[in-house]
Specification:
Number of domains: 2
Low-confidence stretches: none
Structural class: mainly alpha
Strand content: 5-15%
Radius of gyration: 25 Å
Shape: flat
Helix content: 55-70%
Distance between the termini: 37 Å
Order of helices and strands: HHHHHEHE
Number of helices: 6
Length: 118
């Protein structure tokens, strides 16, 4: 709450910060004011988790045929199945991509010592 009050005081002192077309205003708006809707984003991710749970549960077997929840769960289940199929194909590409070492030697920077990859 204290940081939010400080944010309002800062905007009150420098209203030019709200102009996103200035160099500083864009960074201020995206960093400071962009964090304000995060609690609502958390609620949205909770809704997303609910839809994934609806897709994974056996709701289609319990709900009658004409009910709206059955149509919603069928759409969610189709999305999840397609995402799993896509992930399986992407995971299969590991077999065709050459492995790279976990530690690389760079003799110019470290004097020939090995350093971890970034």
């Amino acid at each position: 709450m204290r940081t939010l009050a400080g944010l309002f005081q800062l905007v009150d002192s420098y209203p030019r910060l709200l102009n996103v077309f200035t160099r500083v205003g864009f960074h201020f708006f995206s960093h400071k004011l962009g964090r304000l809707p995060l609690p609502w984003a958390d609620a949205a991710s909770g809704g997303q988790a609910l839809l994934y749970g609806l897709a994974l549960a056996a709701v289609n077997y319990w709900v009658p045929a004409g009910f709206a929840l059955k149509r919603l769960s069928a759409v969610c289940r189709t999305f999840v199945v397609l995402m799993l199929i896509t992930a399986a194909f992407c995971a299969g590409s590991i077999l065709f991509v050459p492995a790279r070492p976990v530690v690389e030697a760079d003799s110019r920077e470290s004097g020939g010592q090995k350093r971890p990859c970034a």
